[in-house]
Amino acid sequence: GRSPSPGAVLDFLNVKRKVTLPSGNGNKPVKKDDCPVYCKGVGKIAINLANCCTPIPGDEIVGFISRGHGVTVHRKDCPNMVNAEDDRLIEVEWTEQSDSSYNASIRVVGNTQAELLAVVASVVAQLKLDIVSTNGRTDHKTKQAIVEFSIRLNTKEELNNLIKCQQEIIESLQ
Q: Crossing angle for the helix pair 156-173 and 6-13, nearest 10 degrees?
């Protein structure tokens, strides 16, 4: 078999932190009882996970009171929170149920869908993770294969291990 091009693996490293927690519906608010985040001292309120930094359980987080949209939860290191008005920030924390699994979406670009599927499936199997779904297409202008994977993760450490494993593949191809 052919090894993936270094470019394909490099593109894989561009992990999008697009995460769907099992209790959420994309970026729609989740019901208070199902929400993986708790707002201290606040009654029932809509809570959204920010799309810009996509916090995952284990990240340090802060709530931002959005006008008309409840509280949007960001990672504390999110660039969008640097200039946020202090009076619109609220303390939030992950609930115990936030330790449950979640899906991380990863986009891979390379020469062929087959090689991308083979590389990612091999890495995911080695890490004893599960691929929940895949979606592949070919960009007709660039002729490059693009495959998006949804991978079930249980901890932030698993995400970090997935990224680290891809870095090792890049080094081995050079």
A: 160
Q: Which residue has the tokens 């932030």?
A: 156
Which pair of structure tokens corresponds to residue 86? 């202090």
Q: Which residues contact 44 (CB under 8 A, 6 or more apart)?
A: 32
**Mean pLDDT (the chain, rounded):** 75
pTM above 0.85, yes or no: no
Q: Answer with the residue of higher pLDDT: 44 or 140.
A: 140
Q: Give the HSE-up count for residue 14: Cα atoms under 13 Å, Cβ half-sphere.
A: 12
Given a cut of 50, whether residue 55 has pLDDT beyond it is yes
Q: How far is CA 154 from CA 97, 146, 158, in A?
A: 11, 25, 7
State the average pLDDT over residues 106-129. 85
Strands of 12-101, DSSP E: 18-20, 37-39, 47-49, 61-66, 70-75, 89-90, 92-94
